[in-house]
Design a protein that fits this description.
330 residues, alpha/beta, Rossmann fold, 2 domains, six-stranded mixed sheet, globular, binds 1,4-dihydronicotinamide adenine dinucleotide
Length: 330
């Protein structure tokens, strides 16, 4: 099995190289370039390609990969909203992913964002470095005894429910399916979750139904001074409406690991660039907003789990016994 990696970063290469000696049947080449109409030709001669969360795995790209003989696309991530599943089925390409490689890593990052923006760690850190030991402007709210509202209680949302429970918060949840393991959680309607929660954290996938779930209408239903966190997918929130809500002083704080229009920015050092849109700059202009660049997954344990499962996916596909749970179908 020959695999071509796209959009490879230093930490990807390090974690895969560490495990590859255990897989002598697999050969890997790494590209820094991401998938594009110009780079699909490089996959000629490879059985599989490996892509990541911000790669363009649209219909056009899939057709070209199939023309070049690719039979398998290994997503080294859990989400797959960037993959055209119907085009893959039509082209006879199998899509495999890494579901739930470290749900706690993402949930811990969600709580880190909630705490940082609530307790103004981003401001305190800079102030003290400038010998400014004043506490003016740093007042937060105590999470203990408050209500957390978790939207989507799959693997990551469930981990976030457990963390909030551990903080002594009442935990409300909204999901289309209830998670029976979460006996301390009260499932409520979306409207009740929005109106009753002091902290709202998004953990549902991006689908047609969840696109712009957080918009003018749903923001209007939230409590004043709510803390909102999104570590799931940018387009769950309609950014223009979020910005209007922030300007209207609806939010005590907003923590975003993902945001609309992040694709050009994600994982790139763009310090010398003039950015194409003003969304990032406008979000960063607010003192009560913290943005990180899709780093929720980034722990040593998660990288190890991603590498292990991706290589196992490749091996099982080659043997003709791929794990059904790791295959994504249209
Ligand atoms: P999961 O599949 O285990 O759970 C998703 C849950 O959302 C399910 O319980 C499902 O029933 C629910 N759901 C689906 N549509 C919904 C809707 N319209 N409203 C409410 N609930 C809905 O997924 P997992 O592993 O917990 O991941 C969740 C999301 O986190 C992924 O889709 C991905 O977008 C994001 N993610 C972000 C990462 C980061 O680094 N920031 C890393 C990994 C995943």
């Amino acid at each position: 099995m020959k695999i071509l990696f796209y959009d490879t970063k230093k930490y990807d290469r390090e974690s895969f190289d560490e495990l590859l000696p255990e897989y002598p049947d697999i050969t890997v080449d790494y590209l820094e370039a991401d998938l594009s109409p110009h780079t699909t030709i490089l996959a000629k001669g490879y059985d599989a390609i490996c892509a990541f969360v911000s790669s363009d795995v649209g219909g056009n790209i899939i057709e070209r990969l199939a023309e070049n003989g690719v039979r398998l696309i290994l997503m080294r991530c859990a989400g797959y909203n960037n993959v055209d599943l119907e085009a893959a089925a039509k082209a006879g390409i199998t899509i495999m992913r890494v579901p739930g490689y470290s749900p706690e890593a993402v949930a811990e990052h969600a709580m880190a964002l909630a705490l940082a923006v609530n307790r103004k760690i981003h401001k305190g850190y800079i102030k003290v470095r400038e010998n400014n030991f004043s506490l003016i402007g740093l007042t937060g709210i105590t999470f203990f005894g408050k209500t957390a509202g978790i939207i989507g209680t799959g693997k990551i949302g469930a981990a976030m429910c457990r963390i909030c429970h551990g903080f002594g918060m009442k935990v409300l949840a909204y999901d289309i399916y209830q998670n029976p393991e979460l006996d301390f959680v009260e499932y409520v309607s979306l409207d009740t979750l929005l109106s009753d929660s002091d902290l709202i954290s998004l953990h549902c996938p991006l689908t047609e139904e969840s696109y712009h779930l957080i918009c003018k209408d749903t923001i209007g239903k939230m409590k004043d001074k709510v803390v909102l966190v999104n570590t799931s997918r940018g387009a769950l929130i309609k950014t223009e409406d979020l910005i209007a809500g922030i300007r209207g002083k609806k939010f005590f704080g907003v923590g975003l690991d993902v945001y609309e229009e992040e694709t050009h920015n994600v994982f790139e050092n763009r310090e010398d660039d003039i950015l194409e849109t003003s969304v990032t700059a406008r979000l960063l202009s607010f003192p009560n907003v913290i943005v990180t660049s899709h780093q929720g997954f980034l722990t040593e344990e998660a990288l190890y789990a991603i590498s292990r499962t991706t290589l196992e996916n490749a091996r099982e596909f080659e043997k003709g016994i791929p794990t059904e749970a790791n295959i994504v179908r249209a």
